Amino acid sequence: MEGRTRAAQTTRHTQVAIIGAGPAGLMLAHLLHHHGIESVILEHRDRAYVEGRVRAGVLEQGTTNLLNELGLGERLRREGLIHHGFYLQFEGQRHRIDMHELTGGQAITVYGQQEVVKDLIAARLAQGAPLLFEVSDLILDGLDGERSRLRFHYGGELHELTCDYIAGCDGFHGASRAAIPAGVLSVYEKIYPFAWLGILAHAAPASDELIYAYHERGFALQSMRSPSVSRLYVQCPLEDRIEQWSDDRIWSELHARLDLADGAPINDGPIFERAILSFRSFVVEPMQYGRLFLAGDAAHTVPPTGAKGMNLAIADVRVLGAALAARYHEGRDDLLAAYSATCLKRVWRAEHFSWYMTSMLHRFPENDGGFQHHMQLSQLRYTVNSRAAATSLTENYAGLAKV
Ligand code: RFL
Ligand code: PHB
């Protein structure tokens, strides 16, 4: 409120103001820089927090290609783990799904989201381009006028930033979607009746590819960050608190759901990060209001089972970057006008795929005499036995070129 009444101590102008230094905001800044368009990134948190936030781990081919095309993939090429397949496990059997063969050569790369974020921040700062951390009390104004205005506190002072366009890349809880007047957006939402407990542990992954397990005790996932660091998840009740999960309980649940009777068990090790994560399917339409364009989790979220969230955020800003380049360099507005409709096609495909993976692989509280459980087992058996079903799954998982 104070920001509305007092005069700003500093005022400046930029072409595109970007709110949020997550994957969407940082990648958009690099795309704009590549096109010679200036931007300022405003981030609420400090750098250490943003770089330390443990989240996604799977990059689609298209995401990896974009990082490489922009000259941002040097460490990714060295440290990223390229996977050509993954496993589906159920009824005590592990089945390999050969993504590479089924999709005509596609692969995913396992590389932590916070590593992507670190690489993008380092490159942004090396360019000497503006990226402001610890910005607070952000207020968006003039979204439907000729020129928009942001007011915020930074370094103990009130600042004003005017801009041609605003990119709202500030995640699900950000300020930009909330600045759109009531009644403009249609909201579509689905909340799931369970959560994930996720850990990072100093333990060699039990397998060189990801294992997605459907078990009578609930879903489990063996993923990784390096040959010596495992990323593991177990489905847990929505109301659980992290204090209820001792190390022993975590490992015994992971062993119960992931070990096979006739194979090597998963590897235990010291746990150095743990959190309970709830999630939802969420979409707003349109992803634009006047000069404000929403991208990434600010406009849509998916449950993490399909590994799509970060990839979708990057796909949005690829569209937005190209549309802004057409606006500034060719004077064309048509791509900006089509931004929301273009993105929403991919968004809804990812929403469906993430819902489908989540529905197939989790134990749902039963009130149907086991009907849902039998549907899931049948879908899993069909997926591992039918080339058509497995191809459908892998082309979505690896990332579709056309949606
Ligand atoms: P982010 O990453 O949330 O970044 C938003 C940034 O905006 C800042 N912010 C503000 N800044 C200024 N002013 C304000 N008022 C602000 N409010 C917020 C925040 O501090 C933050 O820095 O959104 P973005 O860029 O859209 O990126 C989205 C992804 O982070 C998200 O979709 C993925 O992490 C989802 N996800 C996965 N995606 C994948 O593609 N592959 C995966 O394997 C995958 N695994 C996952 C996941 C998400 C998970 N959780 C946490 C639900 C695994 C998990 C467990
Ligand atoms: C991860 O490694 O964090 C990860 C991998 C696959 C998923 C979700 C998360 O589906």
Total number of distinct structural domains: 2
Mean pLDDT: 96
CATH topology type of the largest domain = FAD/NAD(P)-binding domain
Point out poorly predicted stretches: none
Total strand count, please? 21
End-to-end distance, in Å?
A: 43 Å
CATH top level class name of the largest domain: Alpha Beta
Strand portion, in percent?
Answer: 25-35%
CATH superfamily of the largest domain: FAD/NAD(P)-binding domain
The geometry reads as globular
Q: How many separate helices?
A: 13
Helix content: 25-40%
Features:
binds P-hydroxybenzoic acid, alpha+beta, 7-stranded mixed sheet, 13 helices, 2 domains, FAD/NAD(P)-binding domain, 403 residues, D-Amino Acid Oxidase, Chain A, domain 2, binds 8-demethyl-8-dimethylamino-flavin-adenine-dinucleotide, 8-stranded mixed sheet
Outline the structure in words.
This protein has 403 residues and is of the alpha+beta class. It contains 13 helices and 21 strands. Helix content is 35%, strand content 28%. Strands 1, 2, 8, 9, 10, 11, 19 and 20 form an eight-stranded mixed sheet that branches. Strands 6-5-14-15-16-13-17 form a seven-stranded mixed sheet, with helices on both faces. α2 (23-34) packs parallel to α9 (309-330), α9 (309-330) packs antiparallel against α11 (339-361) and α12 crosses α13. The radius of gyration is 22 Å and the shape is globular. The mean pLDDT is 96. It binds 8-demethyl-8-dimethylamino-flavin-adenine-dinucleotide and P-hydroxybenzoic acid. Residues 19-25, 42-45, 50, 55-58, 113, 135, 138, 169-171, 174-175, 198, 277, 279, 296-297, 304, 307-311, 313 line the site of 8-demethyl-8-dimethylamino-flavin-adenine-dinucleotide (RFL). 8-demethyl-8-dimethylamino-flavin-adenine-dinucleotide binds next to α2 and α9.
